[in-house]
Amino acid sequence: MAKGRQTVQLPASQRKHDKPSEQSGTQQAMENSPFSPKTIIRVVGVALPVLTLAALLSPVYQETLAPVYGAIPASINHTETLMATFLIGYVWRVLLQKVHTDFSILPYLAFWIFWMPGLQTWIFKYSNGFGPIFGPILTGFLSCHGMMIATGYAVSQALEGLELQSQLGDVAGIAIPVVVLDLYLMGVEQAMSSAFIPWLRTLSDHFASPVKLQLMIGTCVSLVSPEKPYWMFSLALPAALYGLLANPHYDGGRNFDLLNTEIAAVNWTLLDRAWSNTGYVSVLESTDLNYRVMRCDHSLLGGEWLLTPERRANGWMVNEPIYSVFEMLEAVRLMEVDPPIRDSDAEALVVGLGIGTAPRSLMAHGINTTALELDPKVSEYATKYFALPPGHTVITDAVSWVSQSSKEESKKYDYILHDVFTGGVEPLSLFTNSFLSDLRNLLAPNGVIGLNYAGDLSTPLTNLVLNTIHGAFDGQCKIFRDAPPKANSDDAESKEDFLNMLIFCRNTPGSITFRQPTSKDFLGSKSRAHYLLPKTEWEISFPTSEDAGVPAVQVLQAGDEGKWKKEQEESAIRHWKIMRTVLPAKVWEMW
């Protein structure tokens, strides 16, 4: 046999083939592909949770600003800034990608969120100097909006695994994902604010406090982060302990006492507080001037001077309201109609509860009274701290309730009181032509209505609302101020005053006149004896089209409320400045 290389035929089971090797290489290539299921899961598992948590943090952050600056000043340009800062962070990472840095920002983002409540508490101490415009901007940059830059950076870094620029091109690989992600952020942020957070708070009171939610979000971000350095936990722990033990905004018992220690320096004490569906609601008491107030965010819903032994010695018989406008609304009982309305037969509807001054007085006269209130905590505190009789308040949205009741026409009211004011502005949905028309449908044939509107007669919005009221009641109305104009101002300047206007209207044609009140009408109140009857010298004429800045035929239609956003923002800023003269800055800042 010749020597040399031999070819031996092996059994098929022992032969090696090239094909399996090729399949293995193809499989490995698919796994390393930017759009492989494994890569997509890894990328989406980081990017989507981080962006969703940022969308949740945004409305929580705004809630923390509302007690200090008001909900509306805190929301000015918030959405636009949110989207812009996310874009900045996203593009920042794209630019740094060229230097091949693997720096992960997520641990720092979690650390930042943990310390955000403490940082805000420190910044809030200077809110009086910052003001309602610069204050939210600075606080946002150091907290939510600065955090959104880091979020954009983290999401952009996570998406690098998809190699979008190599797949779509340099421009499209950046523009398309950032637009999609910005739209996702905006949509989820709105859903979190309007649906998820309210639902979350129905599960447990633990989700009511925004400070708790911030700490929970920080924990979730740390869990999502692929990297978990030891320092993140060691430095975040003091932030959590500070929130639990020393942050006055946290809703623990120790924190409650700490807050009272702080505001005792300015002679105030906190009686109760809670987060609710309209914002931060609390009851406070002045220890030196002896009066009690209920606040919602950065506005007061009402208050009373307390009946002390000294005041009783001076002839006081009851607690007296701090705002005369609530008593002046009760003048609907004094309006002369035919036939006259007996208290024992009368039905009254009150839209907007506040501390319950007006509905409580109507009940005291024996009038069957129903009050509509959106916030359950406002109703609870009005009963607990301001002696409102229980069982007369319906917790509901007034627009839907009035609309439905108007269609049913099952009950008519002799008196309707309309007094709604929150966040430094009037909720315009309760002053539209359709709402006022539905409200009029609930009036008995000889029924009357009293409305309180706070605004500036020199602005088109105020005059548009007055136009709408005038038209809804066929011009059968009169307007009164709640206080005389400034003595040292001429007519032009007096029209620029921000004032409460009381509008009294009747359902059927006739003059607007009031009977003289008797001592029975005053319910033992010295203040009511002075303010109950509207003063003829405080009457204001309905504006002409020249005064209004809007055509006399123009009215506020449902759906047009958003057109007046700018005017409402200006009103809220003006109201913020007024409120800072009513209570000490520390009371607003400490919540």
From TrEMBL:
Residues 1-32 are annotated as: Disordered. Residues 1-12, 22-32 have a biased composition (Polar residues). SUPFAM superfamilies: S-adenosyl-L-methionine-dependent methyltransferases. The keyword Magnesium does not apply. One of its GO terms (biological process) is polyamine biosynthetic process. It holds the Pfam family Spermine_synth. The chain crosses the membrane at residues 40-61, 81-96, 108-127, 133-156, 168-187. This is PABS domain-containing protein. It comes from Hortaea werneckii.
